[in-house]
Amino acid sequence: MMSRPARRPRLRLASLLVPVVAGVLLGSTLGAPAARAGEANPAPVTVPSLRSWQGGQGSWELTPRTRIVIAPSAVAELRTTARLLAGELDAQEGVRPLIVSGTPGAHDIGLRVGDVPGAAGREAYRLTLEDAARLTGASREGVIHGTRTLLQALRTSPRAHSIARGTATDWPLFGDRGQMLDVGRKYFPVDYLKQQIRQSAWYKLNTFHLHLSDWNGYRVESAKYPEIVAEQHYTTGELRDLEDYAEQYGVTIVPEIDLPGHSVAIGTAKPELSFSCESMARPHTSWEGSDLGHWTLDYTKPATRAFARDLVEEVADIFRKSPYIHVGTDEVPLEAAQKACPELVAYQKAKGYPYVGDALVEFINDIDRTVRDHGKTTQVWQWWDYQQPTSITPDKRIVVNEWLSSPEGRAAKGYRTIGTQDGPLYVSPGFGATPGSYGFFDIRATYRDYAFTQRDGILGYRVARWSDHTQTFPVSWVDYFARRPLAVVAERTWATPAGSDVRPFLDRYDQVGDALPLPVAGDIGNNPGMLSQTGWTATATSQETTGEPGQASRAVDNDPYTHWHSDYSAALPQQLSIDLGREQHISGIRYMPRQDGGTNGRVKAYEVLVSDDGATWRKVATGAFPNDRTEYVVPVAPVAARHVALRALSEHGDQNRFAAVAELDVVRAR
Predict the structure, then answer these.
(1) Rounded to an integer, what distance in angstroms lies between the CA atom of residue 144 and that of residue 248?
(2) Spatial CB neighbours of 67, under 8 Å, sequence gap ≥ 6
(3) Among 255, 261, 451, 479, which residue has the least CB neighbours within 10 Å?
(4) Tell me: the pLDDT tens digits for 422-462?
(5) Which tens digit of pLDDT belongs to each residue from 249-308?
């Protein structure tokens, strides 16, 4: 159903234009079509948007003569980044520049490391587009971010192989920006993890937190304890290669092994390490797997502590480049369950602790010492003080991932904190896949309302992608629900304050598309970049306006939670038609089914049509969509057209009478 778009044509020397000398004026940061003569260029369309843009006039051109020129002082540091960029330009633009050292000339791309005046932090960069594209990063990471801007600007430019002249000065609001992916409950293939690294870097996110163990699987190869390792796991070689891969893109992997809770699989393999008391071993909570036994390792036992230290040492040896090891420590049964456990109460009394919860804090601090002995910093989930008192606290050198509330309170207590709040930052489609359900990330509310507070102690924010109840779902389905949330968090943690409508952002998101290389046919995602919906109008052969708001215009409003619905009294086939406002070059359409949980109108058999005048149509594709909620790209041979239509021939619903479309987008072609 999904395929690669047609590759851009190789550049021809005869098509090159003479650059115009640029002036420097204040421009927009949201991106727009090319400026009219005499006006300053608007900012390129990027995700996240640029913090600062000064528009010039004319354009910088990528040509077959373009070179990537590394400053002599930065050759060793930037060689890998230059090679990465050259391959991406080849894949996206059809040009693979030669990599040299020296001073950039006309049409070249210059890379260097140095000061970035007017910007803050090591991830800052400045991209000046004049006769040459000159990119200066405060560090290698800053240069990498600048190359993402260059690639996105080329992809979204109104003219192929060119970018409007001007200067971008850019830096993030937060130092830790990223996602947590639960690969403990659900195994994700290594290729998908690499695609997520590329996608994270594409949005200038710099952290990939891997939740590597949970109740049903310890996913890390273990030489010392092979009996605990799940059949589907990651080998030492795969994980070291993954970390090397992430480093190329400026992404830090944070490995997590979740202890002492969530340990059913470990306890089943090594029951002598688990609590024997029912309240801790089988807490019967809403936590998936908590009724199976061995939920909590007995953290009062010296053997369990030694075992945990061994696992930390193995993980530290695998992830040699990460400055962190996350040790979980969440969802240990609460105070009532702890007081009902004889061995835990006996330990509390033997140690002289006033509260039974002090034993968990002691365990955290014990493991933290092992992490620090390996030159790394410990991360944990907030939990030890949730609805339970303690007389001691975790070491303040530990970084706390705050998930039960916003991170301001924890930071005020002196902890370095990362916000991963349940609700606004959670993607848990196994719990709920419709707006208003638990675990559904409402991009409208988070983009507009969530504070993403800046204050001392708050390091940043992450999307938390949990895999509860998704073990049998395909990766493409799980991925779909995280795609826009990832982009929203990237935008808000890099550049944008609260208070804005998400729809203009989603128009930019669609234009920017996915990181290269794009997924293969039939795999997840595959957004090669859409046309902007600005100026579009939609009509339909029928529309429902009485029983529900189902106007055709709702399929081109950049709001995934509205949809066009055919008239309740009409029959199939039904056609949704879009006037693009002018002739454009296209290479496909993207269909998004209704997202409100309803199933009637979910298109099955379809035709894709194009027209020059909106009256005479020609068919360019046919097929059938699967019966699920995710969006699908239908490729077509590149064609110029002003009008595009999706004709619904049948539906997956029982009545086979209706058609509904949440969003209909058009794939850009060059």
Answers:
(1) 9
(2) 97, 98, 99, 100, 104, 105, 108, 109
(3) 451
(4) 999 999 999 989 999 999 999 999 999 999 999 999 999 99
(5) 999 999 999 999 999 999 999 999 999 999 999 998 999 999 999 999 999 999 999 999
Structure tokens at 495: 């550049």
Alpha-carbon span 56 to 290, nearest angstrom? 61
Range 612-627 burial, b when 16+ CB lie within 10 A, else e: eeeeebeebbeeebee
85: Cβ–Cβ under 8 A, 6 or more apart, which residues?
68, 109, 147, 150, 151
The whole model's pTM is what? 0.94
Residue 332 clears pLDDT 90, i.e. is over it: yes
pLDDT beyond 90 at 160: yes
Q: How far apart are CA 93 and CA 80, in angstroms?
A: 20
Phi-psi region of 115 (alpha: psi -120 to 50; beta: other; left: phi over 0): beta
For residues 438 and 427, give the distance between their C-alpha atoms in angstroms, rounded to a whole number: 9
pLDDT of residue 577: 98
User: Quick check: 174 pLDDT over 50?
Assistant: yes
For 92, 353, 595, the CA distances from 480, given in Å and listed in that order, are 23, 47, 12
Q: Could you write out the three-class secondary structure of 210-275?
A: EECEECCEEEECCCCCHHHEEEEEECHHHHHHHHHHHHHCCCEEEEEEEECCCCHHHHHHCHHHEC
Neighbour count for residue 329 (Cβ, 10 Å): 26
Q: Give residues with Cβ within 8 angstroms of 302, minimum separation 6.
A: none
CA 174 to CA 38: how far, in whole Å? 37
pLDDT, residue 16, reads 27
Q: How far is CA 391 from the centre of its chain?
A: 39
Residue 300, number of CB atoms within 10 A of its CB: 22
Residue type, 444: R
Tokens describing residue 309: 């230290």
The total number of residues written for the chain in this structure: 670
Element (H, E) at 91: helix 75-93
Amino acid at 142: G
Under a CB-based contact definition with an 8 Å cutoff, are residues 625 and 1 in contact?
Answer: yes
Mode of pairing for the β-strands spanning 605-611 and 617-624:
antiparallel
3-class DSSP state of 599: coil
Indicate the helix (H) or strand (E) that contains 2: none
Answer whether 220's CB lies under 8 Å from 229's CB: yes
**In the predicted model, is pLDDT for residue 30 greater than 80?**
no
Closest by CA to 442, choosing from 421, 458, 461, is 421
Cα separation, 438 vs 144, whole angstroms: 36
Q: What is the CA radius of gyration of the chain?
A: 27
Amino acid (one-letter) located at 475: V
What is the number of other CB atoms lying within 10 angstroms of the CB of residue 160? Answer: 19
HSE-up (13 A, CA, CB side) for residue 61: 16
Complete DSSP assignment for 444-482: HHHHHH------TTEEEEEEEE--TT-TTS-HHHHHHHH
198 neighbors 246 (Cβ within 8 angstroms):
no
Which residues neighbour 389 within 8 Å (Cβ) at sequence distance 6 or greater?
335, 355, 357
Q: How far apart are CA 77 and CA 19, in angstroms?
A: 31
Instruction: Provide the percentage of residues in the chain whose pLDDT is more than 70.
Output: 93
